[in-house]
Amino acid sequence: MTPNPKTARVTKIPDVVVDRLPLYARCLALLHSRGQEVVSSTELAKLSRVTPAQIRKDLSYFGRFGKQGRGYNVAKLLQELWRILGLERQWRMALVGVGRIGRAILEYGGFASQGFHIAHAFDVDHSVVGQELGSVTIRHASELEQRLLKEPVDIGIVAVPALEAQTVVDILVRCGVKSILNYAPMCPRRPSDVQLRQIDPVLALQGMTFHLKNKKGPTKKH
Amino acid sequence: MTPNPKTARVTKIPDVVVDRLPLYARCLALLHSRGQEVVSSTELAKLSRVTPAQIRKDLSYFGRFGKQGRGYNVAKLLQELWRILGLERQWRMALVGVGRIGRAILEYGGFASQGFHIAHAFDVDHSVVGQELGSVTIRHASELEQRLLKEPVDIGIVAVPALEAQTVVDILVRCGVKSILNYAPMCPRRPSDVQLRQIDPVLALQGMTFHLKNKKGPTKKH
Question: Which of A181, A215, B80, B89 has the most CB within a 10 Å radius?
Fold first, then answer.
């Protein structure tokens, strides 16, 4: 990789570009696991559903990868993306809300294997408090602030009902959490230096019905 | 609303614009439930975390809403967005995979209340086949194709392990499904007229660590 002066001002990189990097990394990891050594931007484009030009443009923010006409070295680009994204290290997370979704999150193996460690879990329901699930013991939500001030985390996962989500976000922010993954179907207020990603299947569905509505297909049944 | 010639070529509207409309609709629904009648683009921007200029530009694709300096009529704009997004009707969905995530999806009340009806659910596990969960009886996955050809759906939800997801997507596509919500952590191949939205918390986390890595905060613990 040839160093690029642009890497000095990483904060200027558009969010949409940053958001595509994990997708490229996932596709490269797939190729790597298959033993593939080199990939063209066209092939990577097919896998990631992003145009080859967009891929080249996105990667150019971080330096010069690959050589014209020769494609990218899979292992090197993968390693570089992991470094850029900060994925070589462990990130500590706190889960708030251990209902249906929270439980699925605790039991899902896909976080820990990618370096995302759930260090704490909280709920208000006394019948689940004290239970061990995944790698943690569920604590009462009233301990949230005190616990996080003592044993801080990088990321908060909010899996409480919509009406309680703002209160939880406010506590996480007070505890210095700068990244929040929100499963509650609402958009919480937070300071501008706190990033929040919404996991919201209903919003995703509502974005698709626009296109469904404008198509005529045999699958529609009113 | 003043008709806009642009509405004639709805297919040209960028996906990113369409994807923001459900968010505006959700914010407007919140204001409507509070009895608010008029909203400025500045207020809507605060709620939705999109700039006022972006909101005005997004809405301009669909016509002229509101009057300069007077803001938008909440109820009218909400109704119009629902119409544009095709949310006044019921959409039929099939869920494939009733593991932890699939179970949470079946038991979640937020789909049906927004017009998304789970008409079928399938799994390969004989111990869950025959169970009634939410509003459906779980069927064996071997019946998937036959059932969907007889009783078609608009949307398929894929909640199977990554290795099985491509097979499921292929069957859904053969059954005429044009919209897929994918919870499997992989990016399935599909024809270009089939839309797919990925619900992928790990990708969302990986997009946030980029920013975390480039900040120094008291919450980091290596």
Answer: A181
Q: By C-alpha distance, which of A173, A168, A171 is closest to A184?
A: A168
Q: Which position has the token pair 């990483």?
A: A10
Task: Say yes or no for a CB contact (<8 Å) between A209 and B86.
Answer: yes
pLDDT per position as a tens digit, A170-197: 999 999 999 999 999 888 999 999 999 9
Does A49 lie at the interface with B, CB-CB under 8 angstroms? yes
User: Residue A67 burial (CB < 10 Å; 0-12/13-18/19+)?
Assistant: exposed
A2 CB burial (10 A radius; 0-12, 13-18, 19+): exposed
> Are residues A22 and A121 both part of a single domain?
no
Tokens coding B186 = 């992989």
B204 near A181, Cβ under 8 Å?
Answer: yes
Q: In this structure, are A185 and A96 located in the same domain?
A: yes
- Distance CA(A155)–CA(A132), nearest Å, equals 21
Give residue A179's identity as a one-letter amino acid code: S
**What pTM value is reported for the model?**
0.85
A9/B contact by beta carbon, under 8 A: no
Give the DSSP letter string of B160-209: S-HHHHHHHHHHHHHTT--EEEE-SSS-----TTSEEEE--HHHHHHHHH
**Rounded Cα gap, residues A156 and A120, in angstroms:** 10
3-class DSSP state of B22: helix
Q: CB B207 to CB A19 under 8 A?
A: yes
pLDDT in tens, B55-95: 999 999 988 776 667 889 999 999 999 999 999 999 999 99
Q: Do the domain assignments include residue A110?
A: yes
Bridge-based pairing state of the strands A155-158 and A179-182: parallel
Question: Distances from the Cα of A190 to the Cαs of A51, A168, B53, B72, B114, in angstroms?
Answer: 34, 11, 21, 25, 26
CATH number for position B137: 3.40.50.720
CA-based nearest residue to A3, from A61, A58, A84, A63: A63
Going by the DSSP 8-state scheme, the letter that residue B84 receives in this structure is H
Distance separating alpha carbons of residues A222 and B176, to the nearest angstrom = 16
| DSSP H/E element including A30 | helix A15-33
Asked if A153 is an interface residue toward chain B (Cβ–Cβ < 8 A), one would say yes
Domain region containing A51: 5-85
Same domain? For B156 and B70 the reply is no
